[in-house]
Write a structure and sequence with these properties.
This protein is α/β, with parallel strands linked by helices. The chain folds into two domains: about 325 residues, ABC transporter transmembrane region fold; about 180 residues, 3-Layer(aba) Sandwich (Rossmann fold). Helix content is about 65%, strand content about 10%. The chain has 23 helices and twelve strands. α21 links the parallel β9 and β10. α9 packs antiparallel against α11, α9 packs across α13 and α11 runs antiparallel to α12. The N and C termini lie far apart (about 85 Å).
Length: about 600
């Protein structure tokens, strides 16, 4: 038992034991099927003994029809139980896989951005796919096969002890070296499997990066470099996989070999007992059958122990995901009041005015380096704020904090004079319209993409949102109009078209807070004019934050903040800052190369 606990490491497996408990009805069904299957299979040697001693040895066929009928009945029961064994086992496997994958996906959705900053996409994808597939197989079939083979082993041991206790003890002495060998090999299997799972994640990440960056790879002519990097990782995974398989390849046959020695010992001793008259031919046949049969479950159990040890690497990785701290989490009281992200109670949300205040805010993405120090900013409801500054100045950090993708290390961010931690994230996001520099579109239609900003939006609302941002005209020129299917990532549309759709999606819910993060930096000047008109419309009477690279797009902002090293070094309207002739003036003149008479 201690050996089994050491192999399984129950502390690591506690999350998955919980999943088993939640499926206990199916496991109980399987347990009864296993009992029937193991009993019917292990009864065969008893029938063999009965036939030899009562019919062959006695040279009589009296009652053989009844014995044959009961033997046939046992075989039918065995066949039916094996059928149920496979059907129920399959259901358990797929239910557990679905449940684990659902929980892992929900967990990945709850995690804040700092998790994704420190974990590659490939690693997360590998956990959600191959690791969970491996776990669902071992939790279902591993447990089922273990139970079945333990039952066969126990019943066979009992039968052997009844037939000949002395022979049984002598045959089972071989179990001691088997246990020692198992410990030795399992430790090495786990060592290499951890390496295999690591490189599996790296390869997933390679696939993801190269598929998403195909255009960049081709234009840089770096296909060979990408291929060599991929080949290096696959070779490493192959190396450690082969190491693991070689050890398993030695381990399992070695257990079989030792088992065969045990069977040979039993054959030798039982033969002598038959010749001396201590044992009947029927008992000899039954004992020998059990002696050979008993090492099959030993071999299978050894293989399952190896599989459990192999799966430990996947257990560790899935556990790491499940145990990952949710750095931004709504309190239970807030969830009871406003619901959570997945089940929001929108009817309970207070109306947002849009007053924003950063109050003595400190923040850094790690404990050592603060990006914002004692940062303060007050924004009135309906005010339009533009953030400009060099790369790394802190603009995106301010936006990340405002949207509660991260929370301040110290200090407070207030919405309508209340710390925004007193609201749920769902409340903030429900009142937020956010447009990124690189628009992300979901697979589906243009209609469904715009509607994803407001799930209960009508067709008329979708059309109106597209008209406000200037997307309506180009959509109506498409063959299927709003029903046009968007390919993965929106590759069939231009950057400007994708951006206009993302604008429509952002404003369809009529948010109180608008955030445009470099939303015009990737579009042509003609589309920029269209979007600028849209921006002027959608930010009207909304609290808005605009991070801009093209300074022409923020000239109409109520306030322009120049950010440098996490501080506001200048603040004012476009005309006021130009007149000061400081940082903003330099940024503007360098960008447009205008002389003073044109400013």
């Amino acid at each position: 038992m201690n050996k089994l606990k050491e192999t399984l490491n129950l502390e690591q497996w506690k999350n998955f034991i919980k999943v088993m408990k939640e499926n206990k009805a199916k496991f109980i069904q399987m347990f009864f099927v296993v009992i029937i299957a193991s009993l019917s299979i292990t009864m065969v040697p008893i029938y063999l003994k009965y036939f030899i001693d009562n019919f062959i040895a006695q040279k009589s066929l009296v009652g053989i029809k009844y014995a044959a009928f009961f033997f046939f009945l046992v075989i039918i029961i065995a066949v039916l139980s094996i059928y149920l064994f496979l059907v129920i086992g399959g259901k358990i496997e797929y239910k557990i896989a679905y449940q684990l994958r659902e929980e892992a996906f929900l967990k990945s959705q709850k995690l804040s951005l700092n998790y994704y900053d420190s974990h590659s996409t490939g690693e997360t994808l590998a956990i959600l796919t191959s690791d969970i597939t491996k776990l669902s197989e071992i939790i279902s079939w591993g447990i089922i096969d273990l139970t079945y083979n333990l039952m066969v082993f126990i019943i066979s041991i009992v039968a052997l002890l009844i037939l000949s206790p002395k022979l049984t003890f002598m045959s089972l002495l071989i179990g001691i070296p088997i246990a020692l060998i198992s410990k030795f090999f399992q430790e090495r299997i786990l060592k290499y499997q951890r390496k295999v799972r690591h490189y599996n994640s790296v390869i997933f990440n390679d696939f993801n990066e190269n598929i998403q960056g195909t255009l960049t790879t081709k234009t840089l002519n770096t296909e060979e470099i990408s291929y060599e990097h991929f080949k290096k990782n696959t070779k490493s995974m192959k190396y450690y996989s082969i190491k693991s398989f070689k050890i398993s390849g030695i381990y399992v046959p070695l257990v079989m070999f030792l088992g065969s020695i045990g069977a040979a010992i039993a054959l030798n001793l039982s033969s002598k007992m038959v010749l001396s008259g201590e044992m009947t031919f029927g008992t000899f046949a039954a004992f020998l059958t059990y002696a050979v049969q008993i090492f099959t479950p030993i071999r299978v159990i050894a293989k399952i122990a190896s599989d459990f040890k192999t799966a430990t690497a996947s257990v560790e990785r899935v556990n790491n995901l499940f145990s990952e701290k949710e750095n931004i989490k709504d309190s239970d009281n807030l969830v009871n009041l406003y619901g959570n992200i997945f089940e929001p109670k929108i009817e309970s949300y207070p109306e947002m005015r849009g007053d924003i205040e950063f109050k003595n805010v400190d923040f850094g993405y790690d404990d050592k380096n603060l990006i914002l120090k004692n940062f303060n900013l007050k924004v009135k409801a309906g005010e339009s704020i533009a953030l400009v500054g060099a790369t790394g100045s802190g603009k995106s950090t301010i936006i990340n904090l405002l949207c509660r993708f991260y929370e301040p290390t110290s200090g407070h961010i207030l919405i309508d004079n209340k710390d925004y931690k007193e609201f749920t994230r769902g409340y903030i996001y429900n009142n937020l319209g956010y447009v990124l520099q690189s628009p992300f579109l979901f697979s589906g239609t243009i209609f469904s993409n715009i509607k994803s900003g407001k799930l209960d939006a009508s067709y008329e609302e979708v059309v109106e949102a597209s008209k406000i941002v200037g997307a309506y005209d180009f959509i109506m020129k498409l063959p299927d109009k709003f029903d046009t299917i968007i390919e993965e990532g929106g590759n069939s549309l231009s950057t400007g078209q994708k951006q206009l759709i993302s604008f429509a999606r952002a404003i369809i819910r009529d948010p109180k807070l608008i955030v445009l993060d470099e939303a015009t930096s990737s579009i042509d000047s003609k589309t920029e004019k269209t979007i600028q008109k849209a921006i002027d419309k959608i930010v009207k009477n909304k609290t808005s934050f605009i991070v801009a690279h093209r300074l022409s797009t923020i000239k109409n902002s109520d306030r322009i903040l120049v950010i440098d090293n996490g501080e506001i070094v200048e603040s004012g309207t476009h005309d006021e800052l130009i007149e000061k002739k400081q940082k903003y003036y330099n940024l503007y003149t360098n960008q447009f190369v205008l002389n003073s008479t044109n400013i």
